[in-house]
């Protein structure tokens, strides 16, 4: 089994290597690919130094799986070249997510839809993954009509430059500005770019990707995505209107029995999910589960997950594990 990580020196690429090591994914060879300027650099993996190679060299090596987190343009150009030599690509960019011929996969939800014909598989957006992990079991049991979600997204979702800006603001250092505004002590209602309809790309990803993963265009989703000076994970306040009535106790039990979900919902002990405590973990944490008193058949809850782990690297590696375990590869 030969696995490539494309974008190996980036924030998510580094997390992918950590997850591959922690989950002890069996492989005969690891190929690390990054920008031309990084070729020859050494990256530590399982206590050994692995040299970064060029995209061309990696394609020529015909890896079985290529985990991509190198931006949409790189993926659009090189994922098909890997696929052409028989590699199965799992891509973390938004390039392929809404392509009707590509699958958008959260293994716990729709991993079983994968076949050996899927040579380019899209990893959903981080804020989508944690949302649909909770929505899917609820949709199956109570049939969701509408979701209103407000996100509080970690600054790590923007990238290293934004994290550095926040840290510089805290220490009073001068440095590059990733945002035209102060990040620390602030909330910025602007994740990714604004579209004609007044929403940001991030907000429309939540709407469009959720529909695709649930396989139901009748699930209506509206979102507000906000950047907050927090590391460790994205948080989401979610209001869910169902077709059918529900019982909050049953909701808690249902979610607690789902792989990949941890319910943290005990008000008497102030137990609820928080990003500082989800950092480095792979589960999706849900709490503040309560009925919306203003509308029948409607639930409020609070969802937190590490956006670099289950929101990106771990979900991608879990797709690879699924492909390997189910021998879903040509
Ligand atoms: C963000 N989900 O948080 C996007 C990309 N990582 O900015």
TrEMBL record:
List of catalytic residues: 126 (acyl-thioester intermediate), 234 (proton acceptor)
Superkingdom as given in the UniProt entry: Bacteria
GO terms classed as biological process: 'de novo' L-methionine biosynthetic process; diaminopimelate biosynthetic process; isoleucine biosynthetic process; lysine biosynthetic process via diaminopimelate; threonine biosynthetic process
EC numbers on record: 1.2.1.11
Keyword set, alphabetical order: Amino-acid biosynthesis, Diaminopimelate biosynthesis, Lysine biosynthesis, Methionine biosynthesis, NADP, Oxidoreductase, Threonine biosynthesis
Domain Semialdehyde dehydrogenase NAD-binding: 2-117
Residues annotated as binding phosphate: 97
CDD domains per record: ASADH_C_bac_euk_like (cd18131), VcASADH2_like_N (cd02316)
Family named by the database record: Belongs to the aspartate-semialdehyde dehydrogenase family.
HAMAP family in the record: ASADH
UniProt cross-references to Pfam families, sorted A to Z: Semialdhyde_dh, Semialdhyde_dhC
Its job: Catalyzes the NADPH-dependent formation of L-aspartate-semialdehyde (L-ASA) by the reductive dephosphorylation of L-aspartyl-4-phosphate.
Quaternary structure (record): Homodimer.
Pathway: Amino-acid biosynthesis; L-methionine biosynthesis via de novo pathway; L-homoserine from L-aspartate: step 2/3; Amino-acid biosynthesis; L-lysine biosynthesis via DAP pathway; (S)-tetrahydrodipicolinate from L-aspartate: step 2/4; Amino-acid biosynthesis; L-threonine biosynthesis; L-threonine from L-aspartate: step 2/5
Binding site for substrate: 153, 227
Name this protein carries in UniProt: Aspartate-semialdehyde dehydrogenase
Xref: NCBIfam families: asd_B, PRK14874.1
Catalytic activity field: L-aspartate 4-semialdehyde + phosphate + NADP(+) = 4-phospho-L-aspartate + NADPH + H(+)
Molecular function terms, GO-annotated: aspartate-semialdehyde dehydrogenase activity; NAD binding; NADP binding; protein dimerization activity
Positions of NADP(+) binding: 9-12, 37-38, 307
